[in-house]
Amino acid sequence: MNKFTIKWLALIGLTFFIAACSKTESEIVEIQGKTMGTYYQIKYVLDPTQQKNESLSTQAIKVQIDEKLELVNDLMSTYRPNSELSRFNQTDNSMPVSDAMIHVVKSALTIFEQSNGAYDVTVGPLVNLWGFGPDKHPDKVPTQAVIDEKMQLVGSQYLSIEGNKLVKSIPTLYVDLSSIAKGYGVDFIAEYLQSMGIENYLVDIGGELRVHGRKPESKNWAVAIERPVAGQNVQRVINVGNNGIATSGDYRNYFESDGIRYSHTIDPKTGKPITHKLASVTVINESAMLADGYATAITVLGPDAGFEFANKHHLAVYLLVKQAEGFKAIYTPEFKPYLVED
């Protein structure tokens, strides 16, 4: 064998070695952490070129995600006394706030009007009264007199936006965005990922999701509606598409007193926890924030009024209603395309 042949074979071998050691396939990256009193889990796909980009390294992305979620908490948490929302709650009249706060509150007020008051982000005093807020009262049933007193402090009709200011017409008004801020956080992270050129991802914050694109080999992201019982039981597998998805239910956060179960979801019109048979509401929307808010509104409205509301506003909604044995599933026509056949 001559020297040319040897060199040629050596070159082929080196090329094969380099190709074998180089990443030639897309891969899924997963980042986990804690925020807003719950977990977050983010999965996204990087192609071979993106895998070489230091700004897209797992550590770099996680740092940015944690910073952005901290910002959301610093704006909208009621558990942080110096958050923007807490400072507004401590004012007597009005306060300039961030664009993000204006965006979220404006959406909350829209859902309040659409639902005729069933969705109300000023219900906080009642939530706290029943032991489901940051005050953490003992698990006991308040008297009707105390409920009536707190209801005088509730009503999104007393909350408005003037330019860059939030305005309250009663000084004691207390705003709690926990029913919509988590969805906003999901959207915030999803938009950040897309700004970095990441088009295929699943963002999950405490069960509120936003999905875009697909996994490698064109596989859909696996998303399922959970059966509202103890454990992780799958009710139905769905294909969310490029959308947000939120689920609201009364089967996790509650307390019992004298054999009666009290849900964490408060009806602003009665001042008491809901008592109907609607166990779970799942909403799909382009915005995880809106899906989050609508899921809460429908949960308060109940199975009949909630389903009527969903149809009126052409929402993609899946309801699970308690029956004597098990649950009955009903869904709007807009939800049907997302169902995966059994």
Briefly summarize what is shown:
This protein is an alpha+beta fold and 342 residues long. It has helices spanning 3-21, 48-51, 58-76, 84-90, 99-114, 124-129, 144-151, 181-195, 288-301, 303-312; strands at 27-35, 38-46, 94-96, 159-162, 165-168, 201-205, 208-212, 223-226, 234-238, 244-249, 254-257, 260-263, 266-267, 272-273, 278-285, 316-322, 327-331.
SSE blueprint:
Blueprint: H1 3-21, E1 27-35, E2 38-46, H2 48-51, H3 58-76, H4 84-90, E3 94-96, H5 99-114, H6 124-129, H7 144-151, E4 159-162, E5 165-168, H8 181-195, E6 201-205, E7 208-212, E8 223-226, E9 234-238, E10 244-249, E11 254-257, E12 260-263, E13 266-267, E14 272-273, E15 278-285, H9 288-301, H10 303-312, E16 316-322, E17 327-331
Antiparallel strand pairs: 1-2, 2-6, 3-5, 4-5, 6-7, 7-10, 8-9, 10-15, 11-12, 13-14, 15-16, 16-17
Helix pairs in contact: 3-8, 5-9, 8-9, 9-10
Describe the structure.
This protein has helices spanning 3-21, 48-51, 58-76, 84-90, 99-114, 124-129, 144-151, 181-195, 288-301, 303-312; strands at residues 27-35, 38-46, 94-96, 159-162, 165-168, 201-205, 208-212, 223-226, 234-238, 244-249, 254-257, 260-263, 266-267, 272-273, 278-285, 316-322, 327-331. The chain is globular and about 70 Å long. The N and C termini lie far apart (63 Å). Mean pLDDT is 88; it is low at 3-22. The longest helix has 19 residues, at 3-21. An eight-stranded antiparallel β-sheet has the order 1-2-6-7-10-15-16-17. A three-stranded antiparallel β-sheet has the order 3-5-4, with helices on one face. A two-stranded antiparallel sheet has the order 8-9. The protein folds into two domains: 27-75 and 182-338, ApbE-like domains (T-fold); 77-168, T-fold, CATH 1.10.3980. Helix 8 (181-195) runs antiparallel to helix 9 (288-301) and helix 9 (288-301) packs across helix 10 (303-312). Strand 4 and strand 5 (165-168) form a beta hairpin. With 342 residues, the chain is an alpha+beta fold.
